[in-house]
Structure formats: structure tokens, C-alpha cells
Write a structure and sequence with these properties.
Blueprint lengths: L2 E6 L6 E2 L6 E2 L3 H10 L8 E6 L11 H14 L5 E5 L5 H12 L6 E4 L12 H12 L8 E5 L2 E4 L4 E2 L8 E2 L7 E3 L3 E2 L23 E5 L6 H9 L5 E6 L11 H11 L3 E6 L12 H8 L3 E2 L5 H13 L4 H9 L12
Helix pairs in contact: 2-3, 3-8, 5-6
The chain binds aspartic acid.
């Protein structure tokens, strides 16, 4: 009989009302068991629940929490067949991406899920999402990778984004097909192409000063952008650019600042602000100039995956050419590159 371990980190799925609004609340295992017992038609795998301490709204989860999650997975890996991570929706895509990069190749599925409405509230999506994740966890066609199950779809973890604040179909992977669709039966359109293997449970070194995002927008301050690029503690930057990867030129000054940062060894990754599609840095002169400045085209990577990837690669001590090489290519199916 397959056994699943559920790790509850906090988030709406197990929250309860308080005078201050919804707050994370212990005892999810008992509440879940009570809800599942209402209807004995659920044919679910045996599962245990571990609650992380302290339970947190996912807005509070920082990279140190990724290390705690990976350590928990490591200590239970041998004893279970699959893992479900119950997580707040706000930063679920970041954590799923981070764990995909930290763990690398997997020989068991790790499925993130949560809900938009807490378990037990009217119209809650919690039970459907948790039951779906449990069924997927033990389904033979479910890929051994970090994925995210939400509202009847299974998404690659490092391709997923929270795309709706209110809708129950809160997650999608705009640049990648769903791994599975859950209708009357579970449908897996194509097998995962990711290699399976033994996970890497090593923690990353957390450095909250190392990674930043520079969003480009009309009216942005060149002075502030230059100050960020000149920051000595910066090691990796996501350039959050327009369309296919275009920046404003500021008469060449932004480019000079990018070039200087690149020469200092800062990894510069160009990610589009568009909800769908990829960066093609050679398409316009403004974008092509970025190639000369050493900016790496991020292809169709999401902002969430780009930030997680930079944090994990830097946290594993990568720098220079090795870092550039990993950023230019897909390490766990997180992107497709059209130019290098
Ligand atoms: N603020 C909550 C969280 O991310 C939202 C949710 O879980 O849906 O923890």
C-alpha cells in the first residue's frame, strides 16, 4: 500500500478565522481526517501529516524555509512513496521552483498544493485540491519531479505561476503544457521528459542580499537603477524587461551600468514582464545591445523560477562561467531558450 507524507507549511488551506483575519492554525491532520471520514468513497493512499513549526502565511516564507522543507524531505524520503507539500498560494510557485532546483533529479513525486478557501469553509477548494494531490502522488503516470496540483490540473513546479487572486483556478503554467488534467479520469497528455535520479538534499547558503529584481517601467529612475547595479553585495539580478526583452536605453547609461555589473561578476538574467512568451534578445537593437553587455536571455522562464534559480545556484556557490552556463540552459525543464 503506497504511503504519502504531507508536509503542512501554513497557508489558507489550513487557516482558521480570527479577529485579525485568517491565520495559520495547527491540527490540520485531525480536521482533514474528519472531513475525509464524512464520505467513505474516497479511495486514498495512506498518509501522514507533519506540521512545520511555526506555521506561516506563505508571504512570510523566505529561502531559509526552502532549506527546512528539504531537510524534512530528506529525513522522511526513504519511508514514503510520495510527498505532498501543503503551502500558501502566494509564494507556492517560488517554493516549488526552488525545491525543483535544490533537489534536482527525483525518484519520487513531490507535489505542492493549497487552496484559495480554507478547509471547512463554504465552497472550499481545499478538499478537492488535497484529494487530487494525494491521488496524483500515487498514480504511476505522475512524473517524479516537483509539481503543483491545483484546481484539477497538475503543473510543472518551476513553470507554475499564481495567475488569479480570486479564482479557484489560481495557477497556470502559461509557457508549458499541463502535466496532467483531472476530469472524470486523470489524463497525462505526455510523459515527463525529465530524468529521474537520487535527490540532492544539501542545503543552500542563504544570502538575502545576493539577488534582486530590476523592473523596467516608463518613468523609472536611472539613478536608482545604477545604485542597485553598483551594489557590492549584488551577485545575481533579474532584469524584468518589456516584451521580447527590451530595456530603455537612457542614452547608453543603463547599458554601461549593466556592463560594469557583468564585469564585476554579477549574473544578469533577462526575463519578460509579459504573461506568456519568451525573451529573444536579438530582435531589436535595444535588446541586442544587452548581449554585448553580458546580459543572459532568460528564454521563457518565469520571474518566480528565475529568482529561485538564481538563489539556488548562488546558494550552491556557483559563479562565473559555471553560473552563466546554468542560467543559459534549462536545468530542470524550467525554460526553453531561443537565443544564447
Ligand atoms: N496568504 C495566504 C498564503 O499564501 C494565501 C493562500 O494560501 O491562499 O499563505
Amino acid at each position: 500500500m503506497p504511503r504519502v507524507l504531507m508536509l503542512y507549511t501554513g497557508g489558507t488551506v489550513g487557516m482558521q478565522p480570527s479577529p485579525q483575519g485568517y491565520v495559520p492554525s495547527a491540527g490540520l491532520a485531525e480536521r482533514l481526517a474528519a472531513h475525509l471520514a464524512l464520505d467513505d468513497s474516497y479511495r486514498l493512499p495512506t498518509f501522514d501529516v507533519i506540521e512545520m513549526q511555526p506555521l506561516m502565511d506563505s508571504a512570510e516564507l523566505m529561502p531559509a524555509a526552502w532549506n527546512r522543507l528539504v531537510a524534512l524531505l530528506e529525513s522522511h524520503w526513504a519511508h514514503y512513496d510520495a510527498f505532498v507539500v501543503l503551502h500558501g498560494t502566494d509564494t507556492m510557485a517560488y517554493s516549488a521552483a526552488a525545491l525543483s532546483f535544490m533537489l534536482g533529479a527525483l525518484n519520487k513525486p513531490v507535489i505542492f498544493t493549497g487552496s484559495q478557501i480554507p478547509l471547512g469553509e463554504p465552497r472550499s477548494d481545499a478538499l478537492n485540491n488535497v484529494v487530487s494531490a494525494l491521488q496524483l502522488a500515487v498514480h504511476p503516470a505522475t512524473p517524479c519531479e516537483v509539481s503543483l496540483a491545483f484546481h484539477d490540473r497538475l503543473l510543472r513546479g518551476n513553470r507554475a505561476r499564481k495567475v488569479r487572486t480570486q479564482g479557484l483556478d489560481a495557477f497556470d503554467s502559461p509557457n508549458f503544457p499541463w502535466l496532467a488534467e483531472l476530469g472524470i479520469s486523470l489524463r497525462f497528455p505526455q510523459p515527463s521528459a525529465l530524468l529521474s535520479g537520487i535527490p540532492n538534499f544539501a542545503p543552500i547558503t542563504v544570502d538575502d542580499e545576493a539577488v534582486a529584481v530590476l523592473p523596467l517601467y516608463p518613468g523609472m529612475s536611472l539613478r536608482r537603477a545604477k545604485a542597485l547595479l553598483a551594489d557590492e553585495s549584488l551577485k545575481g539580478l533579474v532584469l524584468y524587461s518589456y516584451g521580447v526583452g527590451n530595456p530603455p536605453s537612457f542614452a547608453g547609461e543603463l547599458l554601461d551600468a549593466l556592463k560594469a555589473a557583468n564585469e564585476r561578476g554579477v549574473a544578469l538574467l533577462n526575463v519578460t514582464q509579459c504573461a506568456q512568451g519568451e525573451v529573444v534578445q536579438g530582435a531589436y537593437a535595444t535588446g541586442a545591445a544587452l548581449n554585448q553587455a553580458g546580459v543572459i536571455a532568460g528564454g521563457d522562464i518565469t520571474l518566480e523560477a528565475a529568482l529561485a534559480k538564481l538563489n539556488v545556484l548562488l546558494g550552491r556557490g556557483l559563479s562565473g562561467l559555471a553560473l552563466r552556463h546554468c542560467l543559459k540552459s534549462a536545468v530542470r525543464g524550467e525554460c526553453r531558450h531561443t537565443d544564447q
